[in-house]
């Protein structure tokens, strides 16, 4: 156990979380099989998306009449979180506003991430609080875990499917240079299943704006499935970099700006609006199973 990262286990799973970005860097089963992408063509593992998800037009936010620069997915993934608790089966980290964050995003906030392992797998909880006694906190928050694909021995990427909890016939959002564009993208889900292939991601992420499901199974024809569930988040993104061996399963509260949105930041679609003293929570869980 070091100040830079914390490793923990419950016998069935072993995990490692870094203070930088409060990022999940490793999740292995009892055989040592790694389930989290180790980096490469995409250098991250499971970044925290805050205080925005996706991009803003020209990376600019107009807040109280002043222009602020916020790059894609925000700054939390590149900040060092403070350890609150480290135990044999989990950890808690927190990031709070400071002069550095307020130069980019002039709001008070407290973002707490709680990791825990039990017989049902790994659980991650996000608690976002507005400690300001006067001002509303306008922000988005999202998860971006990247899972090894393929993760079963002797399988190919095209052997894998995603089975959703419920049918997902609704059209998907369209991205243009990272922004939400006009139009719709037909759902690639047939009933409850997507047959996975790199070509699905040639035009960027699959964005489900109002998914009916709150869980899915990522699996090949043989071996265990990776069972992923989420709560509190309203959107879901699926993404990979064509040619790479990972799949990101991304629950979001918020999304990129529309291509024509130039209004004040607080009017941006998809934001949370936390009143003074209010708190919002969400989370996701993952395990291996049938």
UniProtKB/TrEMBL annotation:
Record InterPro entries: Aldose_1/G6P_1-epimerase, Gal_mutarotase_sf_dom, GH-type_carb-bd, LacX
CDD domains: Aldose_epim_lacX
Signal peptide positions (record): none
Annotated protein name in UniProt: Aldose 1-epimerase
């Amino acid at each position: 156990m070091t100040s830079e990262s914390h490793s923990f286990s419950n016998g069935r799973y072993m995990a490692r979380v870094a203070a930088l970005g409060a990022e999940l860097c490793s999740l292995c089963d009892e055989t040592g099989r790694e389930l989290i992408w180790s980096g490469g063509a995409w250098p991250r593992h499971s970044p925290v998306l805050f205080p925005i998800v996706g991009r803003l037009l020209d990376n600019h936010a107009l807040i109280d009449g002043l222009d602020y620069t916020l790059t894609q997915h925000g700054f939390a993934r590149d900040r060092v979180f403070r350890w609150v608790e480290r135990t044999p089966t989990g950890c808690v980290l927190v990031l709070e506003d400071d002069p550095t964050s307020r130069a980019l995003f002039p709001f008070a906030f407290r973002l707490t991430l709680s990791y825990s392992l039990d017989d049902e797998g790994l659980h991650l909880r996000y608690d976002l609080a507005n400690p300001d006694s006067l001002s509303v906190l306008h922000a988005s928050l999202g998860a971006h875990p990247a899972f090894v694909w393929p993760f079963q021995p002797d399988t190919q990427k095209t052997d894998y499917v995603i089975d959703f909890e419920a049918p997902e016939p609704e059209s998907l959002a369209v991205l243009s240079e990272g922004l939400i564009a006009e139009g719709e993208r037909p759902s690639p889900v047939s009933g409850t299943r997507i047959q996975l292939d790199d070509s699905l991601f040639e035009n960027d992420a699959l964005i489900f704006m109002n998914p009916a499901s709150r869980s899915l199974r990522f699996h090949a024809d043989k071996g265990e499935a990776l069972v992923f569930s989420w709560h509190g988040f309203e959107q879901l993104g699926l993404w990979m970099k064509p040619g790479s061996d990972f799949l990101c399963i991304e629950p979001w509260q918020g999304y990129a700006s529309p291509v024509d949105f130039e209004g004040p930041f607080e009017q941006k679609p998809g934001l949370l609006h936390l009143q003074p003293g209010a708190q919002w929570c969400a989370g996701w869980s993952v395990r291996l199973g049938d």
